[in-house]
Amino acid sequence: MQSLSRRLGTLAVATAVATAGLAVCSTAASAKSDLAVGVGSRTVALGGTVRVQAEGDSDDFGGAAVRICIDGRTGRGAWRQLACGPQNHRLQLKLRARHRGILRFRAQLVALTGPHHHTVDRTSAVVAVRVR
């Protein structure tokens, strides 16, 4: 009888520890980040102005500074960082369409996690603009 009560006590303690562990894990995963990128028009004439805006926020890195950046590429070329804005806010950019084809843009939230060390928190979906 004493063995059964000892086993039930051990089971109750193990259940309580497991429940507490799950509660700690679920609260640790509650950090939020949000990011969106948009363009003024999906089609622009050659020589016209392309307006790109990005908006984002993140608290995934605690007190580390998080900036929003806009990247762009032409056709299938490499991504280039076009501009970075202040911490956790909005960034607007105006570019001149100099070549025909498809321009693609994306936004990234970038955290400064150490001296000269940047970490990408989140990357937005890609938006495209056709230059005719």
TrEMBL record:
Superkingdom: Bacteria
The signal peptide here is 1-31
Tell me which UniProt keywords the record has, alphabetically.
Answer: Signal
Q: What is this protein called?
A: Secreted protein
